[in-house]
Automatic annotation (TrEMBL), chain A:
It comes from the Bacteria. InterPro entries: ATP_PRibTrfase_cat (IPR013820), ATP_PRibTrfase_HisG (IPR001348), ATP_PRibTrfase_HisG_short (IPR024893). Pathway: Amino-acid biosynthesis; L-histidine biosynthesis; L-histidine from 5-phospho-alpha-D-ribose 1-diphosphate: step 1/9. Residues 56-205 form the ATP phosphoribosyltransferase catalytic domain. Heteromultimer composed of HisG and HisZ subunits. It catalyses: 1-(5-phospho-beta-D-ribosyl)-ATP + diphosphate = 5-phospho-alpha-D-ribose 1-diphosphate + ATP. GO terms for molecular function: ATP binding; ATP phosphoribosyltransferase activity. The keyword Disulfide bond does not apply. Its EC number is 2.4.2.17. It is found in: Cytoplasm. This is ATP phosphoribosyltransferase. One of its GO terms (cellular component) is cytoplasm. It comes from Cohnella thailandensis. GO terms for biological process: L-histidine biosynthetic process.
From TrEMBL, chain B:
PROSITE patterns: AA_TRNA_LIGASE_II. This is ATP phosphoribosyltransferase regulatory subunit. Heteromultimer composed of HisG and HisZ subunits. The lineage of its organism: Bacteria, Bacillati, Bacillota, Bacilli, Bacillales. Belongs to the class-II aminoacyl-tRNA synthetase family. HisZ subfamily. It is found in: Cytoplasm. The keyword Nucleotide-binding does not apply. It comes from Cohnella thailandensis. CDD domains: HisRS-like_core. GO terms for biological process: histidyl-tRNA aminoacylation; L-histidine biosynthetic process. This function is generally fulfilled by the C-terminal part of HisG, which is missing in some bacteria such as this one. GO terms for cellular component: cytoplasm.
Length: 212, 406
């Protein structure tokens, strides 16, 4: 872990990766757009003096907290939910969406309010702050199903365009916060690889400022 | 929860097997010896303390304290660190002892973490407190001792980042005079290491752009002593200036120790604002994602126990150091002595002699071994061997004259 060493980057597989690698390339780092063998988990990127660890997005903060990755890219939604002890260095301004409360049109308060979500911590905290006591049900996907089939009266989920909601006859009721991807760093790496991380931050933030 | 299986332990606690204990004891011994040579005397305090005294005074947040009730219903805590118990002792049992006091400790401490791997509920800390000396020399002394201790522990390469709580306090007070809530908001973002949130909060503040730029600039105040010069030009606040001057003094002393290569100045490093009152520092080792030591000046703690005094100190996170230190120590010299009933006396005397030399002697009666003895002898003739999971250097057999000694 010297300052000249290879920077280990926990990269989220899928949607965010495409946008993140594009941003990295615009910032002048030679990062491949996609990898031939997508099943490879550890990918050296010697051109940028980096090594990518391809991770499931929700696991990125964990890798970084433990220091097996020096830095990582992750959505604010995951950071809010996982609550890990990492540095949040930069708002990359990519993968923009929002965390919202969603329900059927004409929702009225029910006796036993139930909220289905992939983000139980975020949802519990939000409703507690609103002074509402709700039962939070954790689901792992297709959250929109819950109000349609009566598992819950509302859901808390990420909304990008709102298309899925519209197609399923759901409406956005409130927005909790807006979500973009962030650059995060391990506590130790942030100090021991200060130069490399600061240089990367500077290049990226220049690019982000230009993009607006 | 279902009934635990017989092998299970509560979350966050660990067993240490002989190999790990040997390593842990070696670190503990070397570090305490190092501290002793700097004039620090070791003390021990109880595992349990009152919540209302040590528990409340502790820097550990309330929800991370292990609490129990005694038979009278008084709340007891398992100690979460050693600084507050030592403050209690300094203010009571040692209250007639003149300052400065140099005390060291090695102890297990307890933290109630949410279920999470890598965060132990019980772990070991080895540390020192230097009580009653407000000078920068004292601050530099504990940093220098932290470096010596990490070296004594065998941590291969590490850096110490030093900051000062007074700098940000002064800077914020100057920039946001009387706007306590906004100051607290900014600090809480920094404490949570949330630089994005900090910048967003700055954008929303109604302050002059030049001030905003300065407050954003602090995120870059990391590096060598040149950082102090940058910081001095950032803020005219007397508190901030005083903090930087102190840091410069500490740096000067550390340079006299010849330790400047181990130390970084980092004004973005935020300790707990309510606890630390001056310089703070953290140590980082290569190949370990968590700090290996932390410390700083805490001039307000002793007053809570009725003997106001300046104090500074640090704790090594000994359990984490265990992960980065190699097993280079040569194995102990062990000798296996096998004897017959007739030669018992002679064999046991030989074992005693070996033990007095400081070597390890394990004795076994020959009839227990009968079948494996020829094999053992063959192996022992070639050099060190393993018997029932234990490594030996030599085999000595008594009472089987025909073959003689192996």
């Amino acid at each position: 872990m010297t300052d000249n060493g290879v920077l280990k980057v926990a990269m989220p597989k899928g949607r965010i990766y495409k946008q993140a690698s594009k941003l990295f390339r615009e910032a002048g780092l030679s990062i491949p757009e996609d990898f031939d063998d997508s099943r490879k988990l550890i990918i050296p990127v010697p051109e940028a003096n980096m090594e990518f660890i391809m991770a499931k997005p929700v696991d990125v903060p964990t890798y970084v907290e433990y220091g097996v990755a020096d830095i990582g890219i992750v959505g604010k939604d995951v950071l809010m939910e996982e609550n890990k002890d990492v540095y949040e260095l930069l708002d990359l301004g990519i993968a923009k969406c929002r965390m919202s409360v969603i329900g059927l049109p004409g929702w009225k308060p029910v006796i036993h309010p139930r909220v289905a979500t992939k983000y139980p911590n975020v949802a519990s905290q939000y409703f507690r702050e609103q002074g509402q006591q709700v039962e939070v049900i954790k689901l792992n996907g297709s959250i929109e199903l819950a109000p349609l089939i009566g598992l819950a009266d509302r859901i808390v989920d990420m909304v990008e365009t709102g298309q899925t909601l519209k197609e399923n006859g759901l409406v956005e009721m409130e927005t909790l916060f807006s979500v973009t991807s962030r650059l995060i760093a391990n506590r130790v790496s942030y100090r021991l690889k200060n130069n490399a991380i600061q240089a990367l931050c500077d290049r990226l933030s220049q690019k982000i400022a230009v993009r607006g | 929860m279902s009934k635990p299986k017989v092998f299970e332990k509560p979350t966050g606690v660990k067993d240490y097997l002989p190999h790990a204990v040997a390593k842990l004891r070696r670190i503990e011994r070397n570090v305490l010896e190092c501290m002793r040579r700097w004039g620090y005397e070791q003390i021990m305090t109880p595992t349990m303390e009152y919540y209302d005294t040590v528990g409340v005074a502790s820097a550990t947040s309330d929800q991370k304290l292990f609490k129990l009730l005694n038979q009278r219903g008084t709340t007891i805590v398992l100690r979460s660190e050693m600084t507050s118990p030592i403050a209690r002792v300094v203010s009571s049992l040692l209250k007639e002892t003149p300052f400065p006091l140099r005390l060291s400790y090695h102890a297990n401490v307890f933290r109630a973490f949410e279920e999470e791997a890598g965060r132990d509920a019980e772990f070991f800390q080895t540390g020192v407190e230097l009580v009653g000396d407000p000078s920068s020399e004292a601050d530099a002394e504990v940093i220098a001792l932290a470096i010596a201790s990490l070296q004594a522990a065998g941590v291969p390469s590490f850096k110490i980042a030093v900051g000062h709580v007074g700098f940000l306090n002064g800077l914020f007070q100057e920039a946001l005079l009387g706007r306590t809530e906004e100051q607290e908001n900014l600090k809480s973002h920094l404490l949570q290491r949330d630089h994005v949130g900090y910048r967003d909060a700055l954008k929303k503040l109604s302050i002059e752009d030049s001030v905003r730029g300065e407050l954003e600039g602090i995120l870059r105040l990391r590096g060598g002593v040149e950082v102090c010069d940058q910081a001095l030009s950032l803020s005219g606040s007397p508190d901030a200036q005083a903090a930087i001057r102190q840091l410069c003094e500490v740096w000067e002393v550390l340079t006299a120790y010849g330790l400047q290569d181990h130390v970084l100045i980092d004004l973005t490093m935020i300790g707990d604002f309510s606890y630390y009152t001056g310089m703070t520092f953290e140590g980082y080792a290569s190949h370990l994602g968590f700090p290996v030591c932390s410390g700083g000046r805490y001039d307000n703690l002793l007053a809570q126990f009725g003997r106001p005094a300046a104090a500074t100190g640090f704790a090594l996170k000994t359990t984490r150091i265990l992960e980065v230190v190699g097993d280079d120590e040569a194995d102990e010299n062990r000798i296996l002595i096998v004897y017959t009933k007739e030669s018992r006396r002679e064999a046991l005397l030989e074992a005693e002699r070996i033990r007095e030399e400081g070597l390890v002697a394990v004795t076994e009666k020959e009839d227990v071994l009968k079948d494996v003895l020829p094999g053992l002898r063959a192996e022992a003739a070639k050099g060190p061997f393993v018997h029932r999971g234990m490594a030996f250097d030599r085999l000595v057999v008594y009472g089987l004259e025909k073959e003689g000694r192996a």
